[in-house]
Amino acid sequence: MAERGGRSRERTGGRARKTYARRPARVHREGRRARLRRGWSAKRASGAARVLGLSNTRRAAVVAIVVCALAFTIAVPLRTYLTQRSEVSEQQQQRERLRDEVAQLEARKAELADPAQVQAEARRRLRYVMPGETPYMVQLPEDKQQAPNQGPAEQAPPPSGPWYERLWDQATG
């Protein structure tokens, strides 16, 4: 009897004779390359599943775990990079502010190198006068301070005693 899709050998007269079984009509219509391609890809996929012993669901779970591990591996250095990048930009802004401040202070130093400017500053800020000059002090009405005896009519005396006693008195009425 012939085996399906394979070769069979019948013994006839001491010699082996090769016979081929009939193939279904569908197999004849397909090309030989398509059969080989289909066979190899099926063998490859089934071979990988057999070797690893994994089903499609398990393979998807393994891939998901690998992707998560890669994401966690990249997350920490990425966060560090972004933090350092923002710190660098802040430091550059601070450096620019300090350069502007240094330029202003150098300009002020150049102004104060003139003795006449120093004298004008001393008169204005420290109210210095030269010998022989008569100083006048002009006090405008809004500059007057309120006299201590002219305070509000009903000013409560400052509370006495520790704070916890005052709190208890307020709470109990």
Automatic annotation (TrEMBL):
What are the TM regions of this chain, as residue ranges?
Answer: 60-82
For region Disordered, the annotated ranges are 1-27, 134-173
UniProt KW Transmembrane helix keyword: yes
Write one Pfam family the protein is assigned to. DivIC
**Record keywords:** Coiled coil, Membrane, Transmembrane, Transmembrane helix
Signal peptide positions are none
Q: Which residues form a coiled coil?
A: 81-115
Residue ranges annotated as compositionally biased, kind Basic and acidic residues, are 1-13
Spans of biased composition, class Basic residues?
Answer: 14-27
Q: Per its record, how is this protein called by name?
A: Septum formation initiator
Q: Which organism is it from?
A: Amycolatopsis albispora
